Amino acid sequence: MTPLSAGFAAMISFIGWVVVRFAAVQTRGESESVRFHRWLTLVLIAILFTAISDHFVLFWLGWVSVSLSLHKLLLFYPERPRAQLAAHKKFIFARVAETMLAVALLSIWLQTGATSISELSPTASIVSEWVMLLLVSVAMLKCAQLPVHGWLLQVVEAPTAVSALLHAGIINLGGYLLLQFSPLLADAAVARWLLAIVAGTSMLVAAAVTMTRISVKVRLAWSTVAQMALMLVEISLGFYTLAALHLLAHSCYKAYAFLTSGSAVEQRERQRFVQLGLPPLKAVIGGLIVVITAVLLGVSAVTSLGYVAPWLAVSLALGLWLSTMFERFNISELLRAICVAAAWFGVYLVANWALSAHLTFSTASYIWLLDVWICLVLIGITSVYLWLLYRPQSAHSSQLFVALNAGLYLDEWATRLTLTLWPLRNSQHKGASS
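User: That's the sequence. What structure does it adopt?
Assistant: Structure tokens below.
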């Protein structure tokens, strides 16, 4: 067992404990509660088995068992057409991913002689580029990246506990897979490009769509697509420790967000009564320029800058937040916000140091065009956000809002394909599809 697998297993154990306790209350009085808890337990066992498995065969068996046991939970309410559709989509894509993973693992064994993850190293384990393309494709399928993302948006029909476990643990397996096989990915330029292009596009679209959704659970589902895309982008750039930290933080946050989604509705209603004006657009743009310049100069003064994209992401987030604090409150609140931002940055540095002390990853080669591509994606997300916020009444904004609210119609092909291969059937009782 590697430090990464041990940490991932510990995180899953904690989240599983929280989800099981929540599910015990949520399903109390349900006629099928015993069946639900049986499959929920099996899903957790399968995830933990996958996390601690080092041998290729055991890892693949664990990967398959996670998907098969999750399928039963997604159909806990089989009479719901959207639940059936989501489960069928997930089932089809999962079988494709598992086949590709089996081919990739078999090829790694044939080309390197390695039979376990711990045997892989960047010098002793050189594989063909197409093998890494397979692994990257498996990760993107598991992380619900465009255009195979639709099932993740429709599984909100499942019980809240299932959604929490899915978004906090299972969907992260794609990033976990690439982190485990990072010694092979570090020098696979074509695979990294594929990962950056698909994940970057998914991040741009998912972040933009999230701005238009009203349903709390659907917003959380779209945000998961965007967050998984960001984690995959970090991996494509070679920031493996940052991606591991992102995986941990996102899992804990998303479990909390889904388990408290009911109270989130109440909080949203309260916010409607708070009439806070938007800061002037010029002030926001000026603040972004100042923060970006300060961050890039500060980082370059302390260490070599390397990739610009991660620091640009931090700068954009801080700039938008600080400009809002400055306009909506006063100087004292702005100073307080700066102190809070500095404190959180300190927490990140400590967490990154702690992970770096225990996790050892290969160093990925620098590809400057990847940096440019991700920077353009980040600027695009910010531009769409500001456009929808400050020009909501324009004709172009209305058209963009309608298209984004429909998810740019990117899931239509998957829906038609699924209904062709596996038509939905009417279920009159819960046991019909179990």
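The chain is about 75% helix and 0% strand.
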